[in-house]
Write the structure tokens for this entry.
Amino acid sequence: MALFGPPGVGKGTQAARLRDAEGVAHISTGDALRKAVAEGTETGLKAKSYMDRGELVPDEVVIAIAKESLQREGKNGFILDGFPRTVAQAEALDKVLDEIGAPLQVVVNLQAPEDELVRRLSGRRLCSKCGAGYHVESMPSAVEGKCDACGAETVQREDDKPEAIRNRLQVYEAKTAPVIDYYAHKSILRNVDASGPVDEVLRKIESALKSIGD
Ligand code: ADP
Ligand code: AMP
């Protein structure tokens, strides 16, 4: 399955819960790119300036990452988070999934009002070591600035600062929202209201997943 939706709507948060509940792989191109940046790989060097500005990383770079992750970890089920983000990526994904014989069965489109997205993005904090996600108001760590899981420092992403947030929301509308139609035409799109608390959204996603094939 794929979790779709604008920046900050809760894709990573819900993907982590679904991964734990269902034992499938969580494939996040954003996480993979941040790892590449931290490790200073060639891909990371190419991607960093796009990411810091809130622009999309070029399709060929991201498609290669997603393809490699799917081939390596996707055999027993997967949750895509933050991929595809353009129609070209959606087409490339179909090809890869055909090759591994695991066509996409459902795309869950998470939706929340823009002021809630801005609130979630501006308060987001990530563990600098293990990547666990927090929010200063809705999901604070037990000790401010420290990760509950590993004790390392929590930090704000460069692209969660106001100017990059504004740009990411515009890029989403211009380049990513058209992917919704791509999946609506295939009748595998399920819209889910993601404006409520995390557990409530999880229940709504699970009931949308049960409706596959209806
Ligand atoms: P995305 O992966 O879609 O960009 P995240 O899962 O990282 O979004 O969530 C963005 C921020 O909002 C994080 O700080 C997260 O803790 C918080 N968050 C996620 N879901 C909810 C929710 N249902 N209610 C309140 N805050 C949430
Ligand atoms: P995310 O963690 O999903 O919010 O992604 C963070 C940033 O990584 C995005 O703003 C883009 O710069 C880049 N990125 C992640 N996934 C993709 C993708 N599928 N296509 C293009 N850029 C991506």
User: Anything to note?
Assistant: The mean pLDDT is 95. Residues 2 and 80 are 4 Å apart (CA to CA). The radius of gyration is 16 Å.
